Amino acid sequence: MAGSTWGKGAQSMPLEVQHIKRALLREFQDRISMDDFEKKDPTERETALLSRAVSAKAARILADCTSDEAAAWVIDGRDDFGIDCVAFSASGSELWLIQAKWKDKGTAGFDTEAALKLVHGLKKLDNRDLDHFNERLQLLADRVHGVLRLPTCKVNLVVALMGDGRLSIETRNILDEAANEFGGRGRSVEYRVLDQRDFHRAIREDLEPLPITLRATMDREWYSRETPYKAVIGEVSADQLARWYGGRSDDGAHEKGHGERLYDRNVRKTLGLTGVNQTMVESMLADPEGFLYRHNGITVQCDRIEQEYHAKRAVGQPTTLTLYNASVVNGAQTVSSAFRAFERDPEAVAEAYVLVRIISLDGTPEGFGRSITKATNTQNHMELRDYIAIDTVQSEIQKDFRLSLDKEYVFRRGELDPAPESGCSVTEAATALACMHRDSSLAVRVKGSTNALWEEGPGGAYTRLFGQQPTAQQIWRAVQVFRLVRDQLTQLRAKFSGRPAAVVDSGGLLVAHLVFQRIGRDRFDEPDEEWAAVLSDVPGQVSAVLPCLITMVDTLFTKKSYVTSTFANEGRCARLVSAVLGVLERGTGPDSPMNLKALMSDTGPKRQRRPQTVRLLVDHDAISEGTPLIYAPSTVEELAIGAWLDENPRRRRASWVNDRKTPILWEADGKRYSPTGLVSHMWNAADWKEQWSAVQGPKQWRVAAEGTLVEIAERLWQRITDDEDPGEESTA
């Protein structure tokens, strides 16, 4: 972001704070005035901007205002008397006086001095003593007085903190006394604290689509049922569906329709003018009255249905339904086709009717809506990929991309892929994760068809790739490596012909797999500057892997073997991977029969580098040498490898060694590993075929009574920042 110092200290900033910082800068950087900081140090300017943005975000949360309104209400600066933002209710009877504190480490506090300053600002406003306030407050003076002169006004003192929100008893007493002093005879003062959790929740909610409310009039036949769940089924004119999508009221005036947002809970977006869809458009225009008989209808889900009658309250009589938080879960192509037909001939479309099934999810069990969506989508050709669109893991990854990386991640068929620098699609992400997986068979399957990526259940690629949700950073870095491998292969392809060229064409995904294995999964958690070095080394990795792979195809399977079928064979590809990795690791010639036999007998995974959490713990001697560690598997892991663990109780035990690279001494074999490397080694040793791509070792090794390595590191970091910066507050 322009003018931002983002990136330099990101690695020491808690993840939630990183998310909040990105979101605040995105929302308020170009809205909040920073004219008084033009000549200040960029770091100081950004801290002030973030503090003001926190106050504006608090106004948005509490006053339900727009971003522009909240930015205009920020008065932070010289002569603000402890008030950073003044927010107003829509009714004009409520006022919020907000003081905000920002700290990059998420440790902002609010002490008695800050509380007294905020209360002093309230008293000056209440006494109409505005002469010494700054110009920003003067612009809002009339509105402030308009609220305060009301006999029933309500004033809220708001503490907005990038921290845990805990206030001392003394600070709370000051705010309580202010409330008692100001209140009375209809007026009231309350105070409220918004902390880091509140802001993180708010920015996540900002990414949620706004609920859609639809109205559907059924003036012909319809019926309903109330048990076990409410549903209404009847005929709706196609022009109503067209208005849902494109927006046009009955009197011809234009209003905004919901467009593709109608299908947020559907398995896919509009597929464009496919053959099926074009047939629907023509059918609706040529014979609107017969359309009902030729069409299966659509399904709408909503949270709640409200029903009103035009005359007699009885089934079958004209009625209008209001559908709250509604989504078309089957029939996206029908609704979009109705809109296209409506644009050509509104009168004809008004004569066409569609059978609409409306299901209320009120009172239904968890997963009921998803099961209906999956079962009803059969009219257009369905692909396995379509069904992952209703997997909550994908929507969570999409949010993580937006919050952590400020990038786009699309997973519904019909959505346009983002520009390469702006994000990626689920297909590209899954392909990269498949190549990253330690099992080369996934890369082989993907080469045959990307449909293999979406298979669920035991052994299914989708379950193995997304069963434990990978982070946005892991996915994006995998995509970065995958793209670099692909680009380097494109450049090298021109240098080959004949059989070597066939290896390049058929073995591209296996080359990517080999590069991922040489990088190692631990490296995907590196700080940004170290990750940049990893990326810069990828072209060289490809240049090393490819010649060795070309040679190994002939060495293992002779020059008469079919290249295409070799790379379609999972067993042969597994042997190629072992051979190439062994040769490159040993640094010996690939055509040495003796060395080839030796390396084929040694297929163990290469020990990888440490994650960042370990650096923090080791550098500050947070865990004593020899401290016992316990393996804490998830429920899924316990089911998968629990029996193997129980065969030897020492497999669950380890001890700590103060070493950045391999700090865990595993009791089972007396060898040292990184946390992630050991978890990966254990999964492999247990022969867990369905293991996840994402491994988060520091979260799976714990110290009794102290928590996981990640939890210990986070507490350590809080103590370090408190010790280094006692009592300091951000500028506000």
Total number of strands: 20
Helix content: 40-55%
Alpha plus pi helix count: 30
The largest beta-sheet arranges its strands as 18-17-16-15-19-20
Shape: globular
User: What is the rounded distance between the termini?
Assistant: 22 Å
Q: Give the helix/strand class.
A: alpha+beta
Radius of gyration: 31 Å
**Fraction of residues in β-strands:** 5-15%
The residue ranges in which pLDDT falls below 50 over 5 or more consecutive positions are 1-10, 249-255, 378-382, 589-611, 723-732
Estimate the mean pLDDT confidence: 83
Sketch the major β-sheet. Answer: 6 strands, antiparallel
Could you explain how this protein is built, in words?
- It is a single chain.
- The chain is α+β, with helices and mostly antiparallel strands and 732 residues long.
- 47% of the residues lie in helices and 13% in strands.
- The strands form five sheets. It has a six-stranded antiparallel β-sheet with strand order 18-17-16-15-19-20.
- α7 links the parallel β3 and β4.
- α4 runs parallel beside α7.
- The longest helix has 30 residues.
- The protein is globular.
- The N terminus and C terminus are likely disordered.
Describe the SSE topology.
Blueprint (H helix, E strand, L loop, with lengths): L14 H14 L13 H22 L3 H6 L12 E4 L5 E8 L10 H15 L8 H4 L2 H8 L5 E8 L7 H14 L5 E7 L1 H12 L6 E5 L3 E4 L5 E7 H9 L28 H12 L4 H4 L3 E5 L1 E6 L9 E6 L2 E4 L1 H13 L1 H5 L2 E8 L7 H9 L7 H4 L4 H14 L2 E3 L12 E3 H11 L3 H9 L12 H6 L5 H22 L4 H9 L1 H12 L8 H30 L5 H4 L3 H17 L6 H8 L11 H8 L8 E4 L3 H13 L5 E4 L7 E3 L5 E2 L1 H11 L15 E3 L3 E2 H16 L8
Parallel strand pairs: 2-3, 3-4, 8-12, 13-14
Antiparallel strand pairs: 1-2, 5-10, 6-7, 7-12, 8-11, 9-10, 15-16, 15-19, 16-17, 17-18, 19-20
Helix pairs in contact: 1-2, 1-8, 4-7, 9-12, 10-12, 17-20, 17-22, 18-25, 20-22, 20-23, 22-23, 22-25, 23-25, 25-26, 27-30
